[in-house]
Amino acid sequence: MKLLLSEEERREALRRLPSVQRLLALPEVVEWIARYGRPLTLQALREELEDRRRRLAQGEEVATGPEEVLQGAEARLVAWTRPSLIPVINATGVILHTNLGRAPLSRATRLAMERVSQGYSNLEYDLERGKRGSRLVHAEDLLRRLSGAEAALAVNNNAGAVLLALSALAARRRVVIARSQLIEIGGGFRIPEIMQQSRARLVEVGTTNRVRLEDYAQALEAGASLVLYAHHSNFKIIGFTEEPSLTDLAALAHRYGVPLMADLGSGCFLNTERYGLEHEPTVQEVVAAGADVVTFSGDKLLGGPQAGLLVGRAEWIGRMKKHPLARALRADKTCLAGLNATLLHYLKDEAEREIPIWRMIALTPEQLRNTAQRWAEELGKGEVRPSHSTVGGGSLPGETLPTYVLALRPSHPTRFLHALRQANPPIIARLEEEAVVFDPRTVQPEEEGALLVVLKNLTASFR
pLDDT by residue (tens digit) across 73-92? Predict the structure, then answer.
């Protein structure tokens, strides 16, 4: 509450405020200078003093001692230097949680990214010839081996990959796509708008739920230059539906001498049916079906760093490599190093063991129940009950995996969830049937200790 001071009291309070020079000589401030640097420390002191002068001038009663001023200045320094992007523990059971950074990386991937960032690298240098090289070669060989395609290219994300492909192959030309595939993914990635940006001319065929091969043939007869297939990666159309197979679509496109481009969105190299999930078209299946260009993400079902990946016929990938957008969208050295390490897990048949998202997907209900039971025993409270995890990240819509969760019933669930988010480290859980639940599937083994420490402290406060 503000208390109005008399003019004399205001003048006296202003006189008591310490000077910047006096504060700079204090031992605490000397330590701040070593930690934060002199310019930032000086700015914090000046702003804190100026704020207190302003409040005093308005008649507010304000503490003017050095100790109070230092407390305020230190709070500013901590706030200014606190990172905005920090690790959190994902206990939601959503494996590819878009808001929480999607795929966590394997240990080998993290090490590869760290190693290449510590110094110089052969990013664009040919060690054999001793001359300038190309960064485009670093992921290409592994992508070719895994997909069966003739050529490959990595850019910064899948939206960029789609934009580059359409710009390089279909600018000012007609692109035919089914109405059922005019999708929107994530935060505003819309196929029609991407086409407009690439200057491709959209030609819609079929209806919302049904498209036939002859619909595509009519558009190709009218002069379409590319056929685009967009996988329904984040929604389903059920009921009275029809779409031609990729094999038939590729054969039709090639009959008219135009390429077939397939945007898989998530992209996958493993058979999802092995884990009790609906079949997700794999990259290698789509290449084998005849697609000339396939685009997909690196940070979703692939389980690597954020990247947009293109594989396909050398003729079309070659055009994209030479397009000006390729430079604007290119991947950096840490991404390429991490991507290589992730792809090697697939090549060495160790993806399920080494890539976190596949390790999570492969966990059995019995393993998850044992973990949740162990948590309950250590906390001395909570109910272990069956529930469902989801893949998330715009992948396998509607698909769930059976799990067991630890359910807590604090006195104020919403406040408890907020307290979890403010903890160190922050924990993201979910509310289910009036209980706060924690799914072991998405909590990595090395995070369990920190999770339980936070829960022990908070449950004592929420009875």
Answer: 999 999 999 999 999 999 99
Token pair for 64: 């003017």
Tokens of 32: 């701040």
Of 351, 366, 388, the last residue of a domain is: 351
Residue 2 has pLDDT above 60, yes or no: no
346 and 363 both lie in a single domain: no
| Residue 1, in any domain of the structure | no
Q: Do 259 and 131 belong together in one domain?
A: yes
pLDDT of residue 286: 97
Residues 285 and 322 in one domain: yes
pLDDT for position 247: 96
User: Mean pLDDT in the chain?
Assistant: 93
pLDDT > 90 in the chain, percent = 82
* Half-sphere exposure for 174 (CA within 13 Å, toward CB): 13
**Are residues 297 and 245 both part of a single domain?**
yes
pLDDT in tens, 200-211: 899 999 888 899
2 found inside a domain: no
